[in-house]
Amino acid sequence: MRACGTCSLCCKLFPVPALKKPADVLCEHANASGCALHGQGRPPVCGEYDCYWREHEDMAEEFRPDRIGIVVTEAGTVTVGGKELGVLLWNQTDPEARRSRDAQSLLDGVVAKGMVAMVLCGQDLEIVFDRAQYPAIAARDIEVAFRYEQSQDADELKRLGAVPDDYRSLTWGEAEALVPR
Ligand code: SF4
Ligand code: SF4
User: Fold this and answer.
1) For the chain, which residues make up each domain, given as ranges?
2) For a Cys-Cys bond, which of 44, 87, 157, 175 suits 163, CB 3.0-4.6 Å?
């Protein structure tokens, strides 16, 4: 596992309900050496979270989240149209961040490997995948499957302090109803 160095972008971009920290505001506990709460009762999600760049030491330094303005997170798999697809969440607050040369190169690389990138910016979601590889799959099908799958981990996500207390498992029908046709 590589070191974060001076990056602290995940401590800014993500909400941490257990700390009542909203999204896109640097956590009040972030400091020059990382986290003032390290070893002192920070929420489990903070200790257990690693971004894609941190987990993949073969990735180039220029893809470090604070350099591209995007935090990429491995988010399990979804099964759609009989295919099991790996999902990466891309969190950013600048809608232009994903259009930089480095970000586009990273995006092209993971999509070419058959993965799905769910690019989140505020309330906007863009689902990027290789349509030539998966011609029978629609972006909406991926979103419904992802919402359903993620909600099945509600208890674990609540234990980690990563979601609000009212977060709950969805039925397939409830997940479908959340995604416009
Ligand atoms: S975004 Fe990744 S590299 Fe940056 S602080 Fe978070 S885990 Fe570390
Ligand atoms: S508690 Fe520490 S690790 Fe968690 S968001 Fe705040 S600064 Fe980051």
Assistant:
1) 10-178
2) 157
